[in-house]
Amino acid sequence: MSYRRKKLLALFCATALSMTAVAGCTGTKSSTGNVVSSETETNAEETSAQSEAGTFSSADMFTERDLAGTYEESGAVYVTLSDDGITGETDGVVIDGQTVTITAEGTYIFSGTLSEGQIVVDADNAKVQIVFDNVDITCASSAAVYVKSAEKVFVTLAEGSQNTLRNTDEYVAIDDNNIDAVIFAKSDLTLCVQRSWTTLAGVSPV
Predict the structure, then answer these.
(1) What's the pLDDT at 100?
(2) What are the phi and psi torsion angles at 196 (to 5°)?
(3) What is the dihedral sign for C-alpha 6, 7, 10, 11?
(4) How many whole angstroms separate alpha carbon 166 and alpha carbon 73?
(5) d(C-alpha 174, C-alpha 176), whole Å
(6) CA dihedral over 60, 64, 65, 70, signed as positive or negative
(7) The model scores a pTM over 0.90
(8) Considering only Cβ atoms within 10 Å of each terminal Cβ, which end of the chain, N or C, has fewer?
(9) Distances 121 to 57, 100, 104, 124, 126 between C-alpha atoms, Å
């Protein structure tokens, strides 16, 4: 992916992630009550003009999977978060205390609560889909979701779910990356929802 396309993708994600109330994949409702649509309608003349001007349509920037906002439950790995102990299938998942590290390509469905914990993606050249189905994660001094390494990560909110990610203190370095967001990604990141509500505090993808 070119640097320009990555910048455009980051801009889209920054817009999507800054919304506190989200309704479907075709529009988002911000805390100010404004509705921002992710749908783009262009005719042939507009598309031609965009190409000449060096800009891109949504089809240039996003794949069908980016825009679909769906996930396959069949074959997915289910992980239950809890302060008393995280449980889940072990394929592609390493559990160390209150930290869950995803190490392999696949779909991972999370539910439950961590009052101080983190999800890390460390899966070189892998496409990883994280599905939040009623999660509440607080990570006081780092990212609640830290994408350290991957080809691409999809964050999807299950339909009808309520999900909250929080940072409550100053960010503290845990490695060479300057982690400064509730969701911090060193790879391409796509966020899509299915009529869900989410609260994301301090999000700024990089």
Answers:
(1) 97
(2) -115, 165
(3) negative
(4) 26
(5) 7
(6) positive
(7) no
(8) N
(9) 29, 8, 9, 9, 10
